[in-house]
Amino acid sequence: MKVVVLGAGAIGSVSATLLSKSPAVERLVVADRSLEAAKGLAETLDRGRVEAMRVDAGKVDSMAEAFKGIDVVLNLVLPRFNLKIMDACLKAGAHYMDAATDLALAKEKPGEAVKAPPEALQLAYDDAFKQAGLIGLLGMGQDPGITNVMARMGADRLDEVQEIEVRDGDNGSIEGYPFASLWSADTLIEEVLMPALAFREGQLVRLGSLQGEEVFDFPSPVGPLTVYNVDHEETNTLPLTIGKGLQAMDFKIAIPKDLAHALLVFQQFGLHRGHPIEVEVKSTGEKVKVAPRDMLAALMPDPKTLSGKAKGAACVVVTARGLKGGAKSGWMFWQTLDHQECYRKYGFNATSYPVGAPMAMATEMIGRGEIERRGVFPPELLDPAPFLKHFPGYGIVIQEKQLA
Ligand SMILES: NC(=O)c1ccc[n+]([C@@H]2O[C@H](COP(=O)([O-])OP(=O)(O)OC[C@H]3O[C@@H](n4cnc5c(N)ncnc54)[C@H](OP(=O)(O)O)[C@@H]3O)[C@@H](O)[C@H]2O)c1
């Protein structure tokens, strides 16, 4: 199998490292807009089968050229390039997989109903991918990804599904930094401040930013953390795919209270915006164009440099509640990893590893013909059994308990 990992960043490094060791992969191309970044990663891998390439995810034709003869493209750049990469995959005849959707495309204001969330733009490629006999697997990381598989497991065990909750918590810290993101700071700021999408009484609605503050008790060793509603891919697809009468679904992420409040202040100043503004550098009189969010992200440490420094543990939890045999029933599933232990075992922390690992795992599954479905779809539309069979081999352990 010939594979392109597009994006030599925090997550791309994990997927490329795992795939470079896979006997199923005969050729691995590490691609990035920076050839230096691609080379820097490729040089750490098995050089016989790995090559580095400069590829700009904003340019469909040159991407399609680079993807010729490739079986699977893993999109691990920023989600604003998803549609262009999907176009390039269609042109080149390559399967497509990503780990995030472009949530910034949402236009509704808080309180407004949502007809079609942003991921619908990608799902609209379903027919084209089917006709081409290609797979477009969306959101195959941790959350989305592992969480979608867990939601499907919960739904499969209930006759009627009333509510699904997805919770993401990390009690990790990095010495020397009051706050540091272990993944794309750009995506974090954008995602956290976007009016959150929630499914209430059978309707998709937009909430405000960082609403629904509560303390969620994550399974040990993470423990209780303050969580807030944020916009997330699971809410784009689960309300449409789970069925069984689902009425409510939302996603909450743990954010330290002081950071949540600071982000809301940044939002009031417009510091979360991704479009460039002209700024005069007072000390030189020079005029530069800079997007405020790029400046905030540049002030934060590069996630690639933090890999082994995080201490603590990360956890994703999915609960599904409803009815079974006419009685109330529910299931809770979770997946936890300790940052230091994960780093010792795999060379990556517990934030990037469980995102890049399912991407690599699903690539190998495609290579072995274990994903027969064609078209564009999220992971919950596939049978969870093959995922559950392979997760432990990648150190992904799904735990579960029945809820009273
Ligand atoms: N599903 C999940 O659980 C989950 C969790 C975390 C992240 N994610 C997603 O995973 C993806 C990768 O995240 P990450 O943390 O690895 O980000 P990252 O560290 O910023 O890496 C992205 C890489 O893509 C490169 N890039 C940016 N624009 C490009 C372009 N036009 N053409 C080619 N390369 C380009 C970046 O280069 P520069 O550094 O030069 O910009 C960087 O090397 C994101 O979509 C993120 O939302 C998913």
What descriptors fit this protein?
20 strands, Dihydrodipicolinate Reductase, domain 2, 7-stranded parallel beta sheet, 32% helix, 7-stranded mixed beta sheet, 404 residues, globular, alpha/beta, binds NADP nicotinamide-adenine-dinucleotide phosphate, Rossmann fold, 14 helices
Describe the structure.
- It contains 14 helices and 20 strands.
- The chain is an alpha/beta fold and 404 residues long.
- The protein has two domains: 2-142 and 350-394, NAD(P)-binding Rossmann-like Domain (Rossmann fold, 3-Layer(aba) Sandwich), CATH 3.40.50.720; 146-346, Dihydrodipicolinate Reductase, domain 2 (2-Layer Sandwich), CATH 3.30.360.10.
- Helix 1 crosses helix 13 and helix 3 (60-67) packs across helix 4.
- The termini are far apart.
- The relative contact order is 0.17.
- The mean pLDDT is 95.
- The structure holds NADP nicotinamide-adenine-dinucleotide phosphate.
What is the CATH architecture assignment of the largest domain? Answer: 2-Layer Sandwich
Continuous helix count: 14
Class from helix and strand fractions: alpha/beta
Question: What's the domain count?
Answer: 2
Are any ligands bound, and if so which?
Answer: NADP nicotinamide-adenine-dinucleotide phosphate
Helical fraction: 25-40%
Mean pLDDT: 95
Q: What separation lies between the terminal Cα atoms?
A: 46 Å
Runs in which pLDDT lies below 50 for 5 or more consecutive residues are none
Largest sheet: 7 strands, parallel
Broad shape: globular
How many E strands? 20
Brief summary:
The protein has 404 residues and is of the alpha/beta class. The chain has 14 helices and 20 strands. It is globular, with a radius of gyration of 20 Å.
